User: Fold these one by one.
Assistant:
Number 1:
Amino acid sequence: MTVTATYGTNTCTAQQLADLLTERLPATFVERESDYFGAYFLATLANATRIKIQPNAVPGDDGEDDLLEDDHPEASVLLIVTAPAEAQLLDTELAAISGLTQLRSPRN
C-alpha cells in the first residue's frame, strides 16, 4: 500500500525545486517529457519513495492549459510524493523549504 502527499509552490520553477531537493535529499532527479504533463522531474529514493516535480499547468486538448490542481491555481509547480505506507514522507525536509505548501495530506 502507498500514500501520496501533494505540495505546491510559486516561488521557484520545477528545475529550481529539483536542484534544491537534490542538495537536501539522497535523490537524483531525471527530467522527463510527457504529452500529458509536459516536462517534469522524477526521483526514486532507496525506500521506493517517488518524488515528482511538475508544472501545475498542463497542455489541454483545446490548446489552453489546464490545471492539475485546479483548487490551487496559485501553485505554479507541484511536488508529489508517493511512498510505501510505512515510509516517512519527508515532512521535515519539505517543511524547511521556503514557499512550499502542503496542498493534500497523505492518503492511500
Note: The helical segments are 14-24, 91-95.
Number 2:
Amino acid sequence: MKLTSTFINIISGIYVLLAIAGAISAYFLSYPAELTEIGNENVKDAGNAALAMSNDLVKQLITLCTGLIGFCVWLFRRPLASDPAELVERYLWTCMAVLLLVASLFAGFITLQRTLLMVAWKSFDPRLDIVWWPQFLQFYLFVFGAAVLGLACIRSLNVLVEKQ
C-alpha cells in the first residue's frame, strides 16, 4: 500500500505544528525567571550536586544522540523508493538530522572537557558561560536534530512500511 504525497504532506504539516507548539510550551514551562530566585541553602555541597547533574545530563544526551545517529544509518539503508525524488528528499532530511546530532555530540564533548577543567580549578558552577553555552547548544542541537529526524521519517513513510 503506497501512501499518497498529499497524505504525507498533511501529516508532515501536523508534525511541524506539533513540534512548534511543543517547543513554545516547553519554553514557558522551563522559563528560568522564577527558578533563579530559589536559593541553594538547602542543598549540601551544591557544587558537587550541580557537577553530578550536569555531567549526567551531558552523558544522557550523548547516549541519545548516538542512538539517533544509528537510526539515521538504518534509515539510509532502507530499500530504495520507486520515486527518485522521494529518495533524494529522504537523504536530504536524514543528512540534516545527522549533521545536527553530530554537532550536538561535539558540544557535549566540549562541555565534558570544560567541566573537567573547572573541576581541576576546584570550582564548578553550571551557570558560568564556559559550561552553560556548550550545554545549551548541545541540548538544542539535539532537539532540532531529533525533530528533523522525525520529519525525515514522516517524509519517507512509503519506504519505512514493509512491502508485502
Note: Helices lie at 5-29, 46-76, 84-120, 129-155, 157-160.
Number 3:
Amino acid sequence: MRCRITLIAIAAVSVGLTVGCSAAKPLEVDPARTSVEYTFRDSSVPPEYHRSYVIKASSTQATITVDSYGDVLRQETTAVSAETWTKVTDLVRSLPERTKDIKTQKPGCAGGTASKIVVREGDDQRYSRHIEDCGGGPVAPLTDTAAPLEALFDMRDLLKTSG
C-alpha cells in the first residue's frame, strides 16, 4: 500500500512538472481569415513630438493611422504580399510561446511607451497582449511581429515630428 501511494505521488508530481514546464501551444490561425492589429502608444511628450500609431492588416492589405493624442495626422493603406503575410502569420502563431514568460508590469509606469497586438480570425478574437515599456520592458515579441507590417510603410516619414 505504501509503495502504491509513493508511486501515485511520483506520478502526480511528474504530470504537474510536465504540464507546468511545457511550452505554450502555438496559436492556430487560418491565414485567409486572420487579421492583426498592432498599436504603438508613444511616451508622454508634447503633442508636436508625440506619434502613436495603429496598423490593421489582413492577408491583402494593411492600413496605418498615425496620431498625436488622438488627432489623426496621417493615414495610408498598402497591399500586403503573400510572402509578408506568411511571415506575419508565422510570427503570430509563435506569440503564445514568445510571450509566456512576460510578467505584467507593476502599476506606476508613467511616461513610457506601450505596444499591443490583437489577432482575430473572422470576428473572433484569438489573442491579445498589451505590454508597457517603462524603462526597458520586454516588448520584443510584439514589435518583432509588427516589423514585417511596419516595413510596408515609410515609417520615418510617417512618424516625423514638427519639432
Note: Helices lie at 2-21, 82-93, 95-99, 140-150, 155-158.
Number 4:
Amino acid sequence: MAFPHIVLTDSQTHLLAELLLAPLPIRKGSGRGAEVCEEDTAVRGLDHDTAPVDLSRLIAFGLAVPRTGSAHITDLGMAVHYEKQLGVAQAHLGDVVRFATTVEEWHPRLAQTLRLLAQGEISLAAAVTDAVSPEQRA
C-alpha cells in the first residue's frame, strides 16, 4: 500500500499532535461538522475558531475519526505525524552537517566531531570530551 502525501496547515499539524496525546471531546454540531468545547481547545493551545474546520479536514483525510463523543487519531494519522517529525529532525541534522562543513576550514576537529555526533557514530559525552580535550585548544 502506498503512503499518501498529505500536506497539512500548521493548525492541522498541531491538532493532529494533540490527538496523538489524547482524544478531543466533540459533540455533534448544528452544521455538518463537530463542535469542540472552547475550554478543551484553549487548554491544548488550539484556535477555537479553526479547530472544527481542521478536525473536519483531518477526518476527511482519514487521519482522525469521531468515536463515542471524541475525536481519535487513526493509524494513518500517527504515520503522517511521525513522518513530519522525521522530516523536521532530518532538516535539523542537515543544518548541523552544513554548519560542520562551513567551520571545517577553521576548526577541522570540531567539524569532524559534529559530523560523527549527527550520524550517531559517537555519543554526546564522547563529543564533549573530544571538544574540551587539551589537543583541541592547541
Note: The mean pLDDT is 88.
